Amino acid sequence: QVQLVESGGGSVQAGGSLGLSCRASGYTASMGWFRQAPGKEREGVACIESHGRTTYADSVKGRFTISIYSARNTHLQMNSLKPEDTAMYYCAASLSGTSCSPGSGVHSSDFPYWGQGTQVTVSS
Questions:
Q1: Which of 5, 20, 72, 73 is deepest in the core (most CB within 10 A)?
Q2: Residue 11's beta-bridge partner residues?
Q3: Are the C-beta atoms of 50 and 24 separated by less than 8 Å?
Q4: In what order do the strands lie in the sheet with 73-78?
Q5: pLDDT of 22-81, one tens digit each?
Q6: Cα dihedral sign for 23, 25, 94, 6?
Q7: CA 72, CA 13: separation in Å to the nearest integer?
Q8: Are 78 and 20 in contact (CB under 8 A)?
């Protein structure tokens, strides 16, 4: 069982930046970030394998950067934020090395461990 604790988030104006961090209680092979806005389905934002290979949703490419440290901590740097980025952001983790494969997208079904979520609000 892997427990995840998120930090960061908050409110910012459009064009601003925020960073989200997530700490896992143990080793992970892949970590990811997902978001869910009110009335919408959960969406994969980005994921990263323990050796650093990343995958991003098209909607955040060039604006968000995911990183991983010691296979237990992940950081999501969000720049040029837009109002449509407003959502609850969730950290997720997997012990499988195939949960974050480039070209396959970022899928919640590939990640069995989840954090409680942290709110990001971007105002126009």
A1: 20
A2: 121
A3: no
A4: 4-8, 18-24, 73-78, 64-69
A5: 999 999 999 999 999 999 999 999 999 998 999 999 999 999 999 999 889 999 999 999
A6: negative
A7: 30
A8: yes
Contacts of 116 (CB under 8 A, 6+ apart): 5, 6, 90
Structure tokens at 25: 């209680």
For 123, the 3-state DSSP assignment is: strand
| Cα 15 to Cα 13: distance, rounded to the nearest angstrom | 6
Separation of alpha carbons 59 and 67, rounded Å: 18
Q: Residue 3 pLDDT more than 80?
A: yes
Render pLDDT for 95-114 as a digit per residue (tens, 0 to 9): 988 889 877 889 999 999 99
The token duo for 104 is 């396959």
Number of residues in the chain:
124
Question: Locate tokens 């290979």: which residue?
Answer: 53
